[in-house]
Amino acid sequence: MIPELKYNEDGLIPAIVQESLGGAHPSGRVLMMAWMNRESLGKTLETGVMHYWSRSRKKLWLKGESSGNTQAVVRWFADCDNDCLLFEVVQQSGACHTGYRSCFFQEYNLEGNPLPTGEERLFDPAKVYG
Q1: Is there a contact between 18 and 87 (Cβ–Cβ < 8 Å)?
Q2: What are the structural domain ranges in the chain?
Q3: What totals of helices (H) and strands (E) does the chain contain, helices first?
Q4: What are 88's strand-pairing partners?
Q5: Which helix (H) or strand (E) holds 51?
Q6: Do the Cβ atoms of 89 and 101 come closer than 8 Å?
Q7: Contact 103, 94 (CB under 8 A)
Q8: Which CATH architecture fits 13-94?
């Protein structure tokens, strides 16, 4: 049974996706944030693989449909207001379309200047997406 969730005026709810490290509480790296609607949430729960709503393409989106970098759901949570979701997943390769493990790879200093990226890309996006 899906809890009564609060979707925005576009019928969407934000989903934070975190790498599963096991344990009693979520503790892994945040991989990405995406939007879900009722259909994508239902498909995710039915298949155990993350599905989202693509706002730019206006269609259901299976994470990894182009890249093969899927996300298997371990468990999920709704926040205290039921207006944001958190998914713990097992990530295949990189979650970011730029080739990094996480979409949150760019660190900034307190002045807002980017710091050197401290990790390597896991895949070449030009080869994966063309």
Answers
A1: yes
A2: 13-94
A3: 2, 6
A4: 18, 75
A5: strand 51-54
A6: no
A7: no
A8: Roll (3.10)
Q: Do 93 and 30 contact (CB within 8 A), yes or no?
A: no
In three-state secondary structure terms, 30 is strand
Residue 118 sits at φ, ψ, to 5 deg, of: -95, 20
Q: What is the pLDDT along the chain (130 residues), one digit of tens a residue?
A: 687 999 999 999 999 999 999 888 888 999 999 999 999 999 999 999 999 999 999 999 999 999 999 999 999 999 999 999 999 999 999 999 999 999 999 999 999 999 999 999 999 999 999 8
Q: DSSP string spanning 109-130?
A: -TTSPBPPP-S--SS-HHHHH-
Give the separation between CA 50 and CA 105, rounded to whole angstroms: 21
